[in-house]
Amino acid sequence: MSELLTVSEVALVLKCSEDAVVRRFASMDGVIDLGRAGSRDKRQYRVLRIPKVVVERYLTRKAGHPIQIEVPARPERRRKSENWKTKAILNLAKAGLQNGCRDKKVYRQLANTAFVLAGTNVPESLWAEIMGSYDWTDEDRRE
């Protein structure tokens, strides 16, 4: 089975509005409509799930040659929390304990690096890639 995409994900791929996606894909075969039907008193409510292959077939037909799309990774959703600091501290302490870390400088480096990542305009989906190329020895030389 093909990956199911939301209207907003397809709009992001096609670089168009969500309304345009609903108009184009609502009646296509394979598209799942989870919304409710309209009536005289209530408007129709659309919640579409669009298979990736349907989007690729649509683009292939428009372009005249095969098109493969890559859907951007979904960002992890987190709710705001009053005790987020406590949770972050506990998670960091647990990770440090599991890795046998007792060095204050390492904890400071982690906090500083997290601050830099959160303060940039770099999308969260690229943070792991940035950290994969991060050279921790540079931090050691500065301290």
What does this structure look like?
There is one protein chain. The chain has helices spanning about 5-15, 20-25, 50-65, 85-100, 105-120, 125-130, 135-140, and strands at about 5, 30-35, 50. It has about 140 residues and is mainly alpha-helical. Strands 1-3-2 form a three-stranded antiparallel beta sheet. Helix 1 (about 5-15) packs across helix 2 (about 20-25). The protein is elongated, with a radius of gyration of 23 Å. The termini are far apart.
Descriptive key words:
mainly alpha; 3-stranded antiparallel sheet; 143 residues; elongated; 2 domains
Low-confidence stretches are none
Compute the separation of the termini in Å. Answer: 52 Å
- DSSP E strands, number: 3
Derived from helix and strand composition plus strand pairing, the structural class reads mainly alpha
What's the tally of helices? 7
Average pLDDT reading: 85
Shape: elongated
Number of domains: 2
What's the gyration radius in Å? 23 Å
Multimeric status of the protein: single chain
Spatial strand sequence of the major β-sheet: 1-3-2
Please render the helix and strand layout as text.
Elements: E1 4-6, H1 7-14, H2 18-25, E2 32-33, E3 48-51, H3 52-63, H4 84-98, H5 104-118, H6 127-132, H7 136-142
Antiparallel strand pairs: 1-3, 2-3
